[in-house]
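Whether sequence alone determines local backbone shape is best considered at the level of individual chains. When preparing material for the folding task, we compiled for one chain both its residues and its backbone structure tokens. The sequence in question and its structure tokens are set out directly beneath this paragraph.
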Amino acid sequence: MPLSYYKRSLFIALLSYILLIILYKAVPNNAKPFFGSKSNTTLSLPLKGAEVEGIVNSYPQKSRQRFRFNVAVNKINEEKTKNGIIVYVNKLDGIKFRDRVVLKGDIRSIFSDKTPGNLDWKEYLKIKGINARMLNPELKSHENAGFIFRLSNNIHEYILNVFDKKFNPDHSVILSGIVIGEKTNISKSLKRSFQDSGAIHLLVASGSNVGFMAFMVYFICSLARLKKGRTYFISIIVCGIYVLSAGLDPPLIRAYIMFMFALAGFLISRQSGVFQGLLISGFIILLYQPNALFDAGFQMSFIATYGIIAGMASWNKFIKGGIFFKTIIRIFAVSLFAQLGLYPLMAVYFHRISLISAFSNIIFVPFSGVLMALGLLTAALEKIPLFGYITVKITALSLMVFKFFVVKFGGFDYSAIFVSSPSIFLILAAYILIFILLHMPVFGFKNKKMYIAIGIALLIFLAGFFTRKERTVSMFSQGKYSCAFFKNPDCGLIVLNAGISGDKLTQAVLESGHSEIEILLLSALSHDYMNGLAELSENIRIKRILIPFGSCAKGEREIIKKLKKKGIIVEEMWPGEKKEFCAVKIGPRWGLHTYPDGKSFRDEGYSGEPFFDRLSWHFESSRFDFEFSRFGNGIRLYKNNKAIRDIIGRKGEIVKIDL
């Protein structure tokens, strides 16, 4: 792609607007300018018996035994406002996407356990403009959406019902994801297979879906020998209805706007239509919802699309050979260029990277196109006895083969790897190198400035190793379980307790910037403190585990045995003992209870019950002296062997202390 594209006013304007959003986000809330509008007002929660008027802003999705949907609020208690509320109901009562509703009930704040490296539900909803929730409100009035939205609702509902009725749960989820991006009920194991095989992007309706719909329209219109202008008009309408039926998610909106501008560019013989479409779609989405800039889905969709546009524009001329060979290489190149930009983001958000995605997508991408066609045919022919039956059987067989390949590719050793959270230096260096690689033919392979830029990127990467390492303690919780991390540059990562689910704890460890645990401490030998230990040990290398003396249940004893067989050092310690690791003395003490009101006491002596026999862990060196409480939800700081301060963790928050 010509470098002159980056000098165009539209690109510079979008980049300036993005920087403005970032700067505004960095300003503390109390210092942000207030424009005297009642829009985006902060709600004083809870509001009991509130009357909410608004528009349903998402397709209702079933979450466990309830349905949930978002409401774009216009009024609360007859006062104009602009807010988003997530609503949970046991029965939908006919509520559909874009219906106007009036609800009465309590409006409460959204709670989310904050664990490092994991989805913060409250923050995720906030980015989408949702800052409150209602549980089983009373439906006071209901006005159906306009014709075009009723049509899209019926299409969405019909497709899902057909898939649920005709296929088993896994096949239904796969087909629903590929056809309209609906993957709410995907199982944990199947989702992991899609992630590890590099096919997870196929379960999100995006550019490929819009492109496929456009291809179908053009194919049918060409058979009917319609003129170019009419074909353009029909494709815009059909693709627009599809985008509405699939939910108006940012990847779809981006793809639809890009399609319109790419098509317009093609009609007037302008090659820059696709890139201009990407920029304009970004502008439109960010003008409507600036916080979308911080949404992982938005970032990944745009980065992947940019990688394909820039990479293929630069390297396409080097793809030569027969039609079949060029097709395979082009699919590989598209997948590679998309994945290149995604790797740093996947490391940041998911801490897991698929190593075979560029190769596996040679099979998955065209296969998903076949499945999308079969899915649409299944929905269209479902009520026609013979043709419907044959289509369902062919689709079911295709889904079985597709799932087999997904599970097979995802099950290979090292098909995907866990990675710790990259530093800002590594991210910056990575994107400089990716930009150069995408444009290498444009720069010219003998361009000295390009190799100087590569050298600068490597220097930035190396600079990350010389930055000051943090010495911090952090505490967080999941439900009733608490956990604490001690990051010590001299001794690696020390973790207190593993009661939190193993996958969440794995993400938390990787988010800390570490890929292994030097020492894992257990306050007790009960399920509450070892719940996630087995899964954690499968994902993260644990060098040493320190446990208290005492009895434990059969299940926990088996876990300890398996860990020892893996080569993990497991040592028992008695309260009062100390062991030195990297100039830090570590040892258990009788359980310390600390409370927010300042009260504290120690529970001395063993009762013989693992659940009650919870110990504290003490750390002492020339630089610091502190003790974790027995629950791991508080620490006590010492100076000259005297307690000087107790810091208590807050439920739903991550408490971080610099030592």
